[in-house]
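Chain A, query sequence.
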Amino acid sequence: MTFAAPVETKSIRFRARSFVAFTLTPEAPLSEWLESLDRWIGNSPGYFAGRPVVLNLNTLKPEVGRIEALVAELGLRGIRIYAIELDGNTALEANLPPVLIGAKEATAGLLMQADSKGRPEEAGKPEEGKAEQGKPEDRQPEPPATLMVKTPIRSGQSVFHAHGDVIVLGSVASGSEIVAAGSIHVYGTLRGRASAGVLGHSAARIFCRKNEAELLSVDGWYCTAEEMEPSLRGKAVQAFLEKDTLRIAPFS
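Chain A, predicted structure.
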């Protein structure tokens, strides 16, 4: 009698993983929005290269037939759409990126934890009347949320920090960029691009000892070198939001 050898089977493991994706939200009139996007790309070439980009169509609400044309327009600009955010049960063609289900706005801050599906959510405060687990002396200190870069950032380099502030002890070369969920501090000359508060932190700021920046941005509001006051070039400045307006002021 011949017995077949047992077949070894391997289980497939599925794990959740979170990524920070940039969101583009087109607005009407679309032609003007695309012109603004072209200006951004002209001042920041390669900004979207290799980045996950989600297309939020809940504001524009285009007809299904126009979505494919818009995705193609963005593709011509080097922007690859990984997913589409669109309320309702809109059925899209199979050749279009998938529609996101259960999308959640990223939140900047230190009190962050993962839910059961691996998605970030804001850590809540202890319930009223209940004490926190463990004595203060027993709890481990929170790891620092600040990223310190001790070497200059060279042209072509990119620093992305989704957990707080970025401090650069040296200079930031032209053609490089810093992207931070919190504030950005540059103790040398800032010649590249700096984007602070990218996860919705409107209170973030940018500080630099010498402003030669190609672009400064806080929470999506930006100003290019061409748009800056000449008197602010070469000076120590700070950039911050004031009533949805990006202000760049001397820092003293």
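The CA atoms of residues 161 and 182 lie 8 Å apart. DSSP finds two helices and 16 strands in the chain.
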